[in-house]
Amino acid sequence: MAVGDTLFWDEPEANLNPKLIKLIAALMHILSENGIQLIAATHSYFLLKELDLLSKRDGEIEPRYIALMMDNDTLVIEQESQLNQLDNIVVLDEELSQYDREMELNYARG
């Protein structure tokens, strides 16, 4: 790959241990620092957050976070420069929902 190239990567976290996801995020960040544009599709909030932390750490990379979702029959597209500016992060919503269900179950058991 050379400066100015674009890498399209579909679910780079697929089948990886979270420790390796951190390495993938670091690799993606290094590629970006070296002039490679990365376009990645992911369902991993862990990977999103790792990339967000890396971009905030040095401030050299200007990420774009794009969320796609369906609202009835309409495609809704959000685009922000910071992860926490997105209104709809479905993967985060589902992780929080799962946590809430677990807490309810644990509370009900006493």
Report on this model:
It contains three helices and four strands. The chain has one domain. The longest helix has 20 residues. The strands form two sheets. It has a two-stranded parallel sheet. Strands 3-4 form a two-stranded antiparallel ribbon. The radius of gyration is 16 Å and the shape is globular. With 110 residues, it is α+β, with helices and mostly antiparallel strands. Helix 1 packs across helix 2. The model has no long low-confidence stretch (mean pLDDT 89).
State the gist of this model.
This protein has helices spanning 18-33, 45-58, 90-109, and strands at residues 6-10, 37-41, 65-71, 74-80. The chain has 110 residues and is of the alpha+beta class.
Which strand order does the major sheet show?
Answer: 1-2
Low-pLDDT stretches: none
Number of structurally distinct domains = 1
Coarse structural class: alpha+beta
- Average residue pLDDT: 89
Give the overall shape, derived from the CA principal axes.
Answer: globular
Q: Which percent range fits the helix content?
A: 40-55%
